[in-house]
Design a protein that fits this description.
Elements lengths: L6 E7 L3 H12 L7 E7 L6 H8 L4 E4 L6 H11 L4 E5 L3 E3 L3 H11 L5 E3 L2 E3 L5 E3 L2 E3 L5 E3 L15 E5 H7 L11 H11 L4 E3 L5 E3 L7 E5 L2 E4 L1 H18 L4 H24 L2 H17 L1 H13 L5 H4 L8 H9 L3 E2 L1
Parallel strand pairs: 1-2, 1-4, 2-3, 6-12, 7-13, 15-16
Antiparallel strand pairs: 4-11, 5-13, 7-8, 9-10, 14-15
């Protein structure tokens, strides 16, 4: 293990034996002149992942969880154990290009303020560029960014997510009750609320199996395909993030509209698909979760908004005001939800 790592690479793993070797190898192959530590949190895998990592990569710090705790807790545990000045959260189904860590570090030290940084994301299957970070529509649907002229974005994906450890600690890490999805969105918007930049760098990059872990969330043969569980988590957690980070009066104006549109979307999809269960699993489940967690959300919103430094115009400067789901509907048709 490095004695004074500059960067700690944190890899959350669950049943990733088929993928995590390539992920770790891509970190070991980095062209950088500073020490890097690798920490893997194995989330009670049943495919022999822990034994594979222990035998193949004895220099990797392995945290073995006795039970399955999810992505947020896994990363919070690794961040607490990390010794590096910077953290890079890296999915087990992602691989870094050889100059990725050097590119991120050089940009980080050139900035006058702490920042969250990301890199261009490429499909590990086709090699196509997926995004260079994302912007948002009014309802927090991510809009892939392809511009290289302005690094400022709404969020960078948690599959390759760089920030100083001190900033991670200041923001409080991932909300452990999110489970999975939109935890990266939350941290990026909270950072922006605090006045810290969120930047997607136009060079280097990483390759990613999109949707490999939770299923769906990608275009298949021209159609948007996802799983009901993923869709519910996505809609629920995006709603959580709106509650926590949208400044007044935009929250009071947009959130009721968001809920009404979710109900309308769920009703229409259930009717078109002739599947009432779809409404209950995805949309009603989202609304019930919001109601059950209303007090927790109110308390966390008070804390988040109380320390706000960013102006409203700056906060919403990375938003486009045409709902992205309308674009997707015209481009790909009604999504397949299984």
């Amino acid at each position: 293990m490095p004695s004074h790592p500059v960067c700690s690479v944190l890899i959350a793993n669950y049943n990733g034996t088929a993928m995590i070797g390539a992920c770790i190898e891509s970190v070991l192959a980095q062209d950088c002149n500073f020490e890097v530590e690798i920490i893997v949190h194995d989330d009670a895998s049943t495919d022999g992942s822990a034994d594979f990592i222990r035998s193949r990569y004895p220099h990797v710090a392995l945290i073995e969880s006795p039970g399955n705790v999810g992505f947020c807790i896994s990363n919070n545990r690794m961040a607490a154990a990390a010794c590096g000045e910077y953290l890079l959260l890296l999915n087990n189904d992602a691989t870094l290009l050889p100059d990725a860590l050097r590119t991120l570090h050089e940009r980080a030290v050139s900035l006058s303020t702490p920042a969250i940084l990301g890199l261009p994301q490429y499909s590990i299957v086709s090699g196509d560029l997926i995004d260079i970070g994302s912007r948002f529509d009014p309802f927090l649907n991510p809009i892939p960014n392809f511009s290289t002229s302005d690094e400022g974005v709404g969020m960078v994906i948690g599959a390759c997510f760089w920030l100083p450890k001190d900033l991670w600690n200041e923001l409080g890490g991932f909300p452990e009750w999110f489970g999975s999805l939109a935890e990266d969105m939350y941290l990026c918007l909270l950072a922006r609320l605090r006045g810290y930049p969120v930047l997607a760098l136009p060079t280097s990059g990483f390759r990613h199996w999109v949707g490999k872990s939770l299923g769906g969330g990608k275009v298949v043969v021209g159609r948007l395909s996802t799983k009901a569980t993923r869709r519910m988590l996505s809609e629920r957690n995006k709603s959580y993030v709106m509650c926590l980070t949208y400044p007044a009066p935009f929250f009071q104006l947009l959130f009721p509209l968001h809920l009404m549109l979710l109900l309308l979307e769920g009703t229409l999809l259930a009717a078109v698909k002739r599947d009432a269960g779809l409404f209950h699993k995805v949309y009603l489940g989202c609304l019930i979760s919001l109601w059950k967690n209303r007090r927790k959300l109110a308390s966390m919103r008070h804390q988040a908004q109380g320390g706000r430094f960013c102006g409203r115009a700056e906060f919403f400067s990375v938003f486009d005001w045409i709902p992205h789901k309308i674009r997707l509907l015209f481009r790909h048709g009604i999504p397949d939800i299984t």
